Amino acid sequence: MADNGNAKGGSGAYTINLENFSKRLKVFYDHWKEHKSDLWSSSDAIAIATPPPSDDLRYLKSSALDIWLLGYEFPETIIVFMHTQIHVLCSQKKANLIGTLKKAANEAVGAGIVLHVKTKNGDGSDLMDDIVQAARNQLKSDKPVVGHIAKEVPEGKLLETWTEKLSGSGLRLVDVTSGFSELFAVKDTAEITCVKKAAYLTSSVLKNFVVPKLEKVIDEEKKVSHSSLMDDTEKAILDPLKVKVKLKPDNVDICYPPVFQSGGKFDLKPGASSNDEYLYYDSASVIICAIGSKYSSYCSNVARTYLIDATPTQSKAYETLLKAHEAAVEQVKPGNQMSAVYQAAVAVIERDAPELLPNLTKSAGTGIGLEFRESGLNLNAKNDRRIKQGMVFNVSLGLHNVQAETTSEKTKQFSLLLADTVLVNERGHEILTAPCSKAVKDVAYSFNEDDDDAAEVKIESKTIAVPTKATLRSDNQEMSKEELRRQHQAELARQKNEETARRLAGVGSGSGEGRGPARASNELVAYKNVNDVPFVRDLVIQVDQKNEAVLLPIYGSMVPFHVSTVKSVTSHQDNRTCTIRIFFNVPGMPFSNDSKLNSQGAIYLKEITFRSKDPRHSSEVVQQIKTLRRQVASRESERAERATLVTQEKLQIGNNRMKMMKLSDVWIRPAFGGRGRKLTGNLEAHFNGFRYSTSRSDERVDIMYGNIKHAFFQPAEKEMITLLHFHLHNHIMVGNKKTKDVQFYVEVMDVVQTDLILMRLKKSSVRGIGRTE
After folding, report:
1. Are the C-beta atoms of 258 and 291 separated by less than 8 Å?
2. Cβ pair 185, 367 in contact under 8 A
3. Left, alpha or beta for 702 (phi > 0: left; psi -120 to 50: alpha)?
4. Separation of alpha carbons 72 and 286, rounded Å
5. How far apart are CA 434 and CA 764, in angstroms?
6. How far apart are CA 304 and CA 262, in angstroms?
7. HSE-CB of 225 using CA atoms within 13 angstroms
8. What is the rounded CA–CA span in Å between residue 763 and residue 755?
9. Across the chain, what does the average pLDDT equal?
10. CA distances from 526 to 413, 533, 622, 637 (A)
11. Is residue 528 part of a domain?
């Protein structure tokens, strides 16, 4: 029976869209007739057998045909298409639904639907004989050619019996996979809508769930496994309301289990999985995230790579891959050969970083739709098929196992991956997963405190202004203004260095890395007496965090050295042995002012080398020494800075009955130090000064009114931000940084972009995208 253009079965639980069925059946028959010899292997009939349902994620041409033509997958169903008849072998329930399509099939292609209903306990053998005989009678040929999907292995008793019947029937069997690949390649309007909804869900999950989740894990330094992240992300996909996407959960599914990889173990193949190891986010680490979701069985995909305190090699590799991916996407337009997409990426790698060419993936992706990887639509160097309007591609490009300049097992090799779902339209292409930014400023996280003061990053000997949260000027400034700013910054840096040198002149020169003031060696005390040295059973290098000492095994005894006496430490692994070299500060170097030593005849240790067969312990020890040195140097530097501060009056806090003026969600510069994502805070005006604070209890700054020398306000006119700048009489501490200038600002461009996105979403909802189904 038909109702409003839909065919309903007897129970009314399922309906088939008659308009879609008629239109697509006609498209199928016309395509078969037009390309019978080249794509359909000159087949006179086409037999499709759909296997029983499975809990595994799989992509089959037979299932794709069912969904494309009928709107649902019909498991354990055999359909044989002939020119004037369509024979269907199925259960009674399916027959009731398919039977409602008889009139539509006859009107669309002039073919009558013949139903063969299999009993519950029957094997359908007799019915199969009837179908084979009908094929002989219909085709009127000595040896009719029957097309089938050769790569699909028969599953279940019904399909195994059917395969035996076909093989013993004397009919000539040919593979028609190429025909179906071409048939499914170009999507109609309804299919494109489904792909867009799937892509919107995918990008929303990555942007609104995965990225905040990763930032929180790193910020709070939690231990979370890749598999745990996979499970949480899968739940977010299956419940779209979690990411504020109004799609019915019944219509969505995952394309594959979400993939999270880090810690030096990467697999860029489509079948990769998330292991049970913890997410690794230390310095120079790389995190790969890949997510695919389906809407009404149509797939979409996105993959991003996130860099933590990236090394120069990692930064260059990512910049190059990003350019290559953008060049590949640019070639996805009607009329181009599919090979041109991959060749565009190769050309960028050869031009900018030829040493990375062996690490490049062998293709730039595949077609995507009802199948996650549509056969015949590979974007590799050999595919000369033409790109057509209506095709959809998963443009995926990666660099695998690139060597880094680090020695750690988890960072010495890294991989990068970028993927987007791209629709081919009349204007060229549309990136459906574009809301997930892959720009360097959005995927590179820096937790190194020294990087907060740097306004620029040098890549490939070219100075590029990096638009971070601390950027205070638009990239579109004139060159003259930029040069003036740089000169001013250089002058401020020179003055700062001179001031620091004068202050520390009587104390000693800077430490080996210039991180803070160095103390005379006779002031460095790790243990007051020999009894305080901890007893260790094994003669291996130990790091005493509490007493800030490094214990070294020398001639059968553990000899302590204060960590401030260590200038640098390196490790090198060769075959099965790991070499650790420790360099110390000695007179004539950073401790050149140690003429006051009581023991003028003291002998100093300049360098010591250890060899170990345990590379894991060696790596841990080196990392612990470096971390402890960094902490001690930072503390000493901050202590010296605070010692020169002018004492400020105490801030008088307004009571709750008074309504205090407050600016919400503003950024501060200089930013607070420490690991973790930078947070916005509130600037409050009290009786005698301002107080700026974030949600973290240790991030708070008080600025007295009497200490403000100049105050500037910059409105957002031809600028990216609205800015409030205070120039102070006396220095204050912002976190662990000493400064006379404090800025509070709001990024207006973020607000504008958010408004634009909301406007686009409202327009899209009118066209049916993002609307509740």
Report:
1. yes
2. yes
3. beta
4. 41
5. 15
6. 12
7. 8
8. 12
9. 83
10. 37, 9, 19, 19
11. no
Q: Would you say residue 316 has pLDDT above 70?
A: yes
Residue 299: pLDDT over 50:
yes
Judgement on whether residues 193 and 171 belong to the same structural domain of the protein:
no
Q: Do 71 and 132 belong to one domain? A: yes
For the entire predicted model, the pTM comes to 0.60
- Are the C-beta atoms of 543 and 580 separated by less than 8 Å? no
Per the structure block, which two tokens stand in for 443? 């995927």
**Domain with 29 in it: what CATH number?**
3.40.350.10
Number of domains present in the structure of the chain: 4
Pair 649, 686: CB distance under 8 Å: no
End-to-end CA distance of the chain: 24
Query: Based on the domain organization, do 318 and 435 belong to the same domain?
Result: yes
Residue 201 · residue 295 · CB < 8 Å: yes
Strand partners, 259: 290
Picking from 323, 255, 272, 300, the residue whose alpha carbon sits closest to that of residue 434 is: 300
Q: Which of 159, 184, 209 is the last residue of a domain?
A: 184
Do 438 and 304 form a contact (C-beta atoms < 8 A)? yes
Q: Token pair of 755, please?
A: 């408004």
Contacts of 52 (CB under 8 A, 6+ apart): 75, 76, 155, 156, 158
Q: In the prediction, which pLDDT does 546 show?
A: 82
Q: Phi-psi region for residue 447, left (φ > 0), alpha (ψ -120 to 50) or beta?
A: alpha
| Token representation of residue 387 | 């790109």
One-letter amino acid of 395? V
Q: What is the CATH number of the domain that holds 722?
A: 2.30.29.150
Distances in whole angstroms, Cα of residue 371 to Cα of each of 39, 432, 534, 723: 19, 17, 63, 51
What are the phi and psi torsion angles at 760 (to 5°)?
-65, -40
The verdict on 297 and 431 lying in the same domain is: yes
Neighbours of 81 (CB within 10 A): 21
Is residue 578 within 8 Å of residue 618, measured between CB atoms? yes
Picking from 121, 155, 184, the residue at the C-terminal end of a domain is 184
What is the C-alpha to C-alpha distance for residues 48 and 65, in angstroms, rounded to an integer?
9
For residue 11, tell me if it sits in a domain.
Answer: no
The enclosing H or E element of 554 equals strand 549-554
Give the number of residues written for the chain. Answer: 773
Question: What whole-number distance in Å separates Cα of residue 379 and Cα of residue 395?
Answer: 8
Structure tokens at 279: 């997410």
Residue 422 belongs to a domain: yes
Per-residue pLDDT reduced to its tens digit, 215-236: 999 888 889 999 999 999 999 9
Examine the pLDDT at 454 and tell me if it is beyond 90.
Answer: no
β-strand pairing of 456-459 with 428-431: unpaired
pLDDT per residue as tens digits for the range 611-634: 888 888 888 888 888 888 888 887
**Which among 270, 267, 276 is positioned nearest to 256, based on CA atoms?**
270
> Is residue 261 within 8 Å of 400, Cβ to Cβ?
no
Rounded distance between C-alpha atoms, residue 199 and residue 255, angstroms: 11
**Tens digit of pLDDT for each residue in 84-112?**
999 999 999 999 999 999 999 999 999 99
Mean pLDDT lowest among 257-266, 575-584, 686-695, 742-751: 742-751
What is the rounded CA–CA span in Å between residue 698 and residue 181?
A: 60
Query: CA-CA distance, 594 to 168, in Å (whole number)?
Result: 97
Backbone angles phi, psi at 644, to 5 degrees: -100, 0
pLDDT at 359: 94
Please check whether residue 573 lies inside any domain of the structure: yes
Distance CA 140, CA 137 (A): 6
Tell me the β-bridge partners of 542: 551
pLDDT for position 532: 77
Q: Indicate whether 178 and 281 sit together in one domain.
A: no
- In this structure, the answer to whether residues 373 and 266 fall within a common structural domain is yes
581 and 728 housed in the same domain:
no
Pairing relationship of beta strands 444-445 and 298-308 according to DSSP bridges: parallel
Domain encompassing residue 609: 538-589+604-644
Q: Based on the domain organization, do 721 and 748 belong to the same domain?
A: yes
Helix axes 18-34, 102-109, angle to 10 degrees: 40
